Structures
1.
Amino acid sequence: MKILILTNYANGLYLFRKELLQTFSEDGHKVYVSLPPDENADKLKGLCRIIKTPFDRRGVNPVKDLGLFMAYLRMIRKRKPDVVLTYTIKPNLYGGLACRIKKVPYLCNVTGLGTAIESGGLLSKILLRFYSVSMKGARRVFFQNMRNRDFMNKNGIALENNALLPGSGVNLTEHPLREYPAEEKNVRFLAVIRIMKDKGIEEYLEAARIVKKRHKNVKFHLVGEYEEETRELYEPQIEALAEEKIIKYYGHIDNVEEVMAKSHIIVHPSYHEGLSNVLLEAAACGRPVLASDVSGCVETFVDGESGFAFESKSTDALVGAMEKMLALSHEERRQMGIAGRAWVEKNFDRNIIIKTYQNELKEIKGEKR
């Protein structure tokens, strides 16, 4: 089959779906991927044919978005795909609508709803109406957590064609269980997040400042890239904390596991998620987690057994969770990490996602014969 994938970020596709691309190729399919060009696109060479499609991931310029929709229509007309897979908001909306118009089978993956929808208001109503139209013709709309699915179903979207997937899953071979580090010198917290408000950066920075005053042997590490619109706000804060030796900031790195394996506790203070890849990889690595009590996070661990949940958007709650984790012994934290590994092995193996897509493609191929 000829498969066209529409997405908004090359590195995300590479990190979390390269095994799916490899499987498609091994199954004899021809794979095209449409995405905005950046330095990460080269990572996908050999896995697919890349169609560079410029668009603003976060902007709401209607003229630019119309251009993206028209680009998708032209792309479908030119490539004549047998099936289209869409990921993230704009590809789901504009790509889904283009597929519906062109009568091409398509599968949507809702990786998260985003603040614009969840905050309510006029923009939320417009987006929900758009989702209703664009996803009505989808063969399947995959959601990554029940809350997102129920919210969309309540608004009349994907009532008959929805399914749940365990996020992007985790490659259990690439992310093996790592030996839990010794704690004689210090205990290391690590957050791997995009530097933006909705990922809980403000709470993490403030909690680090508070807890560091109480526990001199605790270290706080941070991995993640700035969103351009947030750099001016957060860069001075992070640089100041780095100078005070409160935070060690790595910036964006490709191999997060190297830092994760040297850490003792992974913190994820996000306000909302589709399903957190960071928490899945932390559990696979064998690290206990502290995570916001929101859908997309709480599914990835067992509260009290492999981590602790805390109220989102609350520095006090995060500090409390950190103190709760620090009150445990080294062996208790290590055992939490082992329990987390067992949980993802049972529920979040990436092969589950691959087999689901393979089955969908088999059905579509069978109908085309």
2.
Amino acid sequence: MNIIYTAKKVNPSEKFKLNAEKALQKIDKIFPNATEAKIMLKSHNDLVDVELTVIAPNTVLRAESTSSDMNAAFEDCVDTIIRKIRKNKTKLEKKIKTGSISDIQADLYSDDEEQQFDVIRTKKVSLKPESIEEAILQMNLLDHHFYVFINSETDKVSVVYRRKNGGYGFIEPA
């Protein structure tokens, strides 16, 4: 498994990297088709945010944890990923045993967290061509966390959003 480290305002020690590789071997044993692991570390106010993303063909698993101890936060992320893998495998095994193979592909790409939410409100919006800056301004005026618009430069439907750590994000179809 290829491991990519990204650190902001913190330097991971060699000991942390060795521990991370050892912990990721646990994931590799139960999820051998994982090809890449991305570890993002961010420090703020004596706390460290650790974000772990494990990538495999057709599957992306992600976990996030905050702690004063970088190793503890990383171990929490690894445990969360392992729990997600086991839960998904158990669900697939039950489907296979009951003979309902037609639902297996749907379960592979579904996430229990998404299934817990009911759509309470549906809203239709009219989209107009705007620049990214205009869209951010409109989002702030509406006091929303995201804003959907047509990018005037590319004529594609795009999204701007407010990030947790400050700043803005931009999503555009490929």
3.
Amino acid sequence: MKHITILIALSMQNENMEEQNYIKTNIGEFYGTYYGQLGVNVNPDEMYILTNETIENCKTYNYEKEEIGNIYDKSNSKDKYDIYLSGATPLIYIENPNAKEQKELLIFRDSYGSSLAPLLVQNYQKITLIDLRYMSSTLLDDYIEFNSQDVLFLYSTLVLNQNVLK
């Protein structure tokens, strides 16, 4: 994941990804969404989060829950993947109070975008994550003012091939 993040950051002209001094923390075993459908026993993956001072100082706003929170939600959840930005939600934003520039990033994403977004926050004052599986695109203008933000479309092929975007 780190190498993919560096490539994305470089293509977005955010070259200082290597200098972010991440702390890698193991949060336990992870089986994934389709584990129960496999029909065979498999070993779990180990799940990690990367954090640093910037990530720790960021705040999130979840429009669905109308709650302010942290990037990593360490409360006990049945789905360990919910640690990233409190799980599946149609619209959430991250604010970085220590951003060097007033840049904003819009990420149209599925759940994988939740794990990547914290690694891009260093270079943005605000990152807005939009999941069109849970929100109609006709509502976007009610929540987002489109004006010269960077935009990243980050969907798995499963989501794109099933045409579940609204």
4.
Amino acid sequence: MKRREFLKTLGAGAATAAAVSACKNLPSKPADGIEGPMEYRENPFSGDKVSLLGYGCMRWPKLDPDADELDQEAINGLVDRALEMGVNYFDTSPRYLRGLSEPATGEALARHPRESYYIATKMSNFPPETWSFEASRAMYETSFKNLRVDSIDYYLLHSLGEMDNYKARFVENGILDFLVGEKKAGRIRNLGFSYHGDNTLFDYLMELHDRGEYHWDFVQIEMNYYEWSVKKKGGDDCVHMYNELEKRGIPVVIMEPLLGGGLAKVGDGIVTRLKQKDPNASVASWACRFCGSFPGVLTVLSGMTYMEHLEDNLKTYCGFRPCSEEELAFLADTAIQISQFPTVPCTACQYCMPCPYGLDIPSIFAHYNKCVNEDHVPVSSTTENYRKARRAFLVGYDRAVDYERQASHCVGCHECEPKCPQGIKIVDELRKIDRYVEKLKQDTL
């Protein structure tokens, strides 16, 4: 998208402080390096005053990176600090962290007054064996037990994107009508959906809203400055979706503001570019400010595993400054430059896992992308610093991914691909990486 089109699409005044609908009447404590109170946005349907920074509970810390047991003490500390600084929106799912996120989130939040936070969770009935009304309802009821609440503030139909799948999971089994009834009964306060797909089903869901068949109180979409400026082939069109939601006054919840961490781990040249623009701003803060600059955004989710992640985001959203039009144009140009790097658009969501053959797909892609960004992917043996880059790639690969879980063990079953929200042709990417690794090992590049 050209710069002029980008700014036009954003809409007049959307990037100005005056256009940002904020409610700052909730208290938050000052802290070192943090200027001003937490920014809040008001949900026009419920009147909720929601923190612009939302806590995504997909990436809670573990006691052991190679095990499933979560570090509850660390999670409690993160939740305590977030609430202390005014963060009040926590987003989880029965699917996250192989089912461990909901109970861990519930335990941490139950230590605080119920009125101090909003909880969001989802109907994550992905496997066909959970599509029946009984199985889906059981998942719904279990969320209340895990989260230790009597009502759920924001409940989502999880990861919509394809018409037949939507109908099988929510319509034909009657579960969507059941959830509407639960909202009328007060057990659900706001009902919406999260979306990964093209415009077809999304536009249909907007038609249902317009006709009054279903009222969407909020919608969660993937949006960041990269995908806003560089259209993703065969995937979400966040420009279209955001504009359609804002036009209807439907609050927007943003997921993947950092594109799975990719916009925080950009190449050295991009880091230099961003630092020259603002030496005091972190690389990640640019992406966070971009998303918060849109007036229709209710909250921006960030999966903050460590305290330093939380503290950096607090510096962005406490005393929040929307991007100027000049800064938005700068980010549009930055996105175009990032698109020149041949990275795999993996967001590390883990939906492709577990692989039936034991591959660690997200870690394989993460190492490859890291090497691309650090210029450790030589195109030939004549490339400058070839030996150094070759060693960095191969040694780093063995350290990042156990040999038994590397790309060479992919059998091409394609079981992972329908689960990928990004529409990545995972098998093709794994084979490409494996061929590249073999050439490096044989020194035949």
